[in-house]
Amino acid sequence: MSAIDQRPLADDGLCFACGEHNLEGLGMRVRLEDNQAHCLLTLAPRYQGWANIAHGGIVCTVLDEIMAYAVIHFIGQGVTTSMETTFRQPVPLGKQIKARGWIVQRRGRLAEAAGEIRLAADDALLAQGKARWLIKLGPDGQPLPRHA
What we know:
Blueprint: H1 3-6, E1 31-33, E2 36-42, H2 56-74, E3 78-87, E4 96-107, E5 110-119, E6 125-135
Antiparallel strand pairs: 1-2, 2-4, 3-6, 4-5, 5-6
């Protein structure tokens, strides 16, 4: 039995990326459409790395979250086990960006997802991500839904 199976996964609204009760978080509001997760957002100056550029850790967080929404909503509860990020261009602060995540494949309790961040104004590709997920199973051996 893995550690993920030994404790419940609960959403208390304090997630840094999407938590409605986290006043310091990113405030991501994700919509689901065509088997994908989508989000429009503008990163504030407090998420800066170099001048006027989002910190790489924040970019990774956006990608992890958008892929998480795809996995959790289209497969079930799970956790990221590994993630790879490719930075194509600097992600600007104060400009609207769009994030998109989708499922690549699922094999048993393992899932793979992909995501990208683009500039909303001209669709320029800014960053891409790939992640592997471990899915939490219920007593019946099936993935637990988002709100179990």
